[in-house]
């Protein structure tokens, strides 16, 4: 079975950050910060081994300050843009960065001292891999498009609009989204004949929240679709019978005043916290939407289903780090989580305009990593890699509703294993 191990520098970074977080802030704090998993922060390293990827510089949005569209600490937001050419010169791919959430003043204050809350700490250049790659052999359908990575520095999936003056925190995710779209439209995106909004994890949730807004930027003749990768966060019961993720989301929505920017098709009949869960949003998204998710999402296992706070005796510790160490009863619990996911997408899947790729892997975020997006040994369902499935759906070459058989039947997975 294909497995991906974090080794060398990558694994050193992961565990040094884990240890630093636990030592300085305590176990519960670091969990609540939700950068704890480091899945989003370091997965890119898995794509870089033995490669020489395109590096793209950071552009700060100079007009953002006048709109109050700033990061948690008040710095300017930014994005990385690599221009398209040839047949892709009028096509745009916008990728929303992920990176967890902050749910109270303490975690947001901590976050504003990192790249997830301040452009002062953002990398000046980042590698473009997977769906952002400029290599046709690595990204056959989108390699020559205008490709943008919008950096994430608000902590609420680009949805909040409030502030805490005492803590000097700006919750301006919605304004950042709007300012970035306005800036990109002025740089040629308004002439797009094709556009795709994508995002991974917290960025995948943001993609679902903003999908119809994105569609509204363009003319009716523009082909516009959305792709959510690892963004199907479920309102699931954790191993202690509690609601870890719902409690976290309640804090995010309340603190950052996200309720006023969540889709009204949801908030007119459900509470705001429920409307931060994709399972309550996807049925009402009018724009064609593709959901890509691992049925055993590593982030949700570690941080929502079996976090240390719900597992004080450590019964899930080994299973959380390596699926091969799960007991039969733990696998049975995780099969229930998969069933929950399949039930959540049942109505969504009935629409011909929507696409699905649910593979039975212990993974998280598969579009931005080259090994999972498109490589010789990429994960497949019915012999089709993720990149080809997304391309077939986007260009209407085929109907794509790919749902894997339950674990352990898929031997093409690149499972995330921590050791």
UniProtKB/TrEMBL annotation:
<dbReference type="GO" id="GO:0052793">
    <property type="term" value="F:pectin acetylesterase activity"/>
</dbReference>
<keyword id="KW-0378">Hydrolase</keyword>
<comment type="similarity">
    <text>Belongs to the pectinacetylesterase family.</text>
</comment>
<protein>
    <recommendedName>
        <fullName>Pectin acetylesterase</fullName>
        <ecNumber>3.1.1.-</ecNumber>
    </recommendedName>
</protein>
<comment type="function">
    <text>Hydrolyzes acetyl esters in homogalacturonan regions of pectin. In type I primary cell wall, galacturonic acid residues of pectin can be acetylated at the O-2 and O-3 positions. Decreasing the degree of acetylation of pectin gels in vitro alters their physical properties.</text>
</comment>
<feature type="signal peptide">
    <location>
        <begin position="1"/>
        <end position="16"/>
    </location>
</feature>
<dbReference type="GO" id="GO:0009505">
    <property type="term" value="C:plant-type cell wall"/>
</dbReference>
<keyword id="KW-0134">Cell wall</keyword>
<keyword id="KW-0732">Signal</keyword>
<keyword id="KW-0964">Secreted</keyword>
<dbReference type="InterPro" id="IPR004963">
    <property type="entry name" value="PAE/NOTUM"/>
</dbReference>
<keyword id="KW-0961">Cell wall biogenesis/degradation</keyword>
<dbReference type="GO" id="GO:0071555">
    <property type="term" value="P:cell wall organization"/>
</dbReference>
<dbReference type="Pfam" id="PF03283">
    <property type="entry name" value="PAE"/>
</dbReference>
């Amino acid at each position: 079975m294909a497995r991906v191990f974090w080794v060398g520098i990558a694994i050193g970074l992961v565990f040094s950050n884990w240890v630093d977080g636990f030592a300085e802030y305590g176990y519960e704090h670091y969990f609540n910060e939700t950068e704890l998993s480091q899945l989003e922060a370091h997965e890119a390293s898995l794509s870089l081994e033995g490669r020489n990827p395109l590096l793209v510089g950071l552009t700060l949005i100079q007009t953002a300050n006048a709109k109050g569209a700033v990061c948690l600490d008040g710095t300017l937001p930014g994005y990385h843009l690599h221009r398209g050419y040839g047949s892709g010169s009028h096509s745009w791919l916008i990728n929303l960065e992920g990176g967890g959430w902050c749910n109270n003043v303490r975690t947001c204050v901590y976050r504003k001292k990192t790249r997830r809350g301040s452009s002062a700490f953002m990398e000046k250049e980042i590698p473009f891999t997977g769906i952002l790659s400029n290599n046709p052999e690595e990204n056959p359908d989108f390699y020559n498009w205008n490709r943008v990575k919008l950096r994430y520095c608000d902590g609420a999936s680009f949805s909040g609009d409030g502030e805490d003056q005492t803590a000097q925190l700006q919750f301006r995710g919605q304004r950042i989204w709007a300012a970035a779209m306005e800036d990109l439209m002025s740089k040629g995106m308004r002439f797009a004949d094709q556009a795709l909004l994508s995002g991974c994890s917290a960025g995948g949730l943001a993609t679902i929240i903003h999908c119809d807004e994105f569609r509204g930027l363009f003319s009716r003749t523009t082909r516009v679709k959305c792709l959510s990768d690892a963004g199907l966060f479920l309102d699931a019961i954790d191993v202690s019978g509690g609601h870890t993720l719902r409690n976290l989301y309640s804090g995010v929505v309340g603190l950052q005043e996200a309720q006023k920017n969540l889709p009204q098709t949801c908030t007119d009949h459900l509470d705001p916290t429920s409307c931060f869960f994709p399972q309550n949003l996807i049925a009402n998204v009018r724009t064609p939407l593709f959901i890509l998710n691992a049925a055993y999402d590593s982030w949700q296992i570690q941080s929502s289903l079996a976090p240390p706070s719900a597992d004080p005796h450590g019964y899930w510790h080994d299973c959380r780090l390596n699926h091969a160490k799960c007991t039969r009863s733990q696998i049975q619990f995780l099969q229930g989580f998969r069933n929950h996911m399949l039930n959540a997408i049942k109505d969504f899947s009935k629409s011909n305009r929507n696409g699905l790729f649910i593979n039975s892997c212990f993974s998280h975020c598969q579009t931005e990593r080259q090994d999972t997006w498109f490589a010789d040994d990429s994960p497949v369902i019915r012999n089709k890699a993720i990149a080809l499935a997304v391309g077939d759906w986007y260009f209407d070459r085929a109907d794509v509703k790919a749902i894997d058989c339950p674990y352990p039947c898929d031997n093409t997975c690149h499972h995330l294993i921590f050791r």
